[in-house]
Amino acid sequence: MHRQPSSFRDLGHAWGALPTISAQMPSGVTNGTILALTGTEIIMGPCSELGPADPHIQIAPNNAVPAHFLLAAGQNVDPIFVQAATHAIVQTSKLAHTLLSSGMMKGQSVRGS
Questions:
Q1: Predicted pLDDT of residue 36
Q2: First vs last Cα of the chain: how many Å apart?
Q3: What pTM value is reported for the model?
């Protein structure tokens, strides 16, 4: 009977070789945090860290800023960027909730729901 890996330690035994994951977005730390939420357990060392799961909005070529910065900037921001930032924050929150409630927090109350 095949059992589901419960941690990164078990992945090597379950898959034999781990796949390579490459983040292609402005914030590698954000992508790493979202990736960590897909598991059933997070194992961290003394120097490990998880960053905020904050979406970034590209406002010009090679220039992306955190969505919440755009919302805090007030009326000096293009309404299209405000709409994109709002949507990105809502979508990221939904994604985190879905990943947590179907993974490591399955059957438990997940804040923000």
A1: 83
A2: 35
A3: 0.66
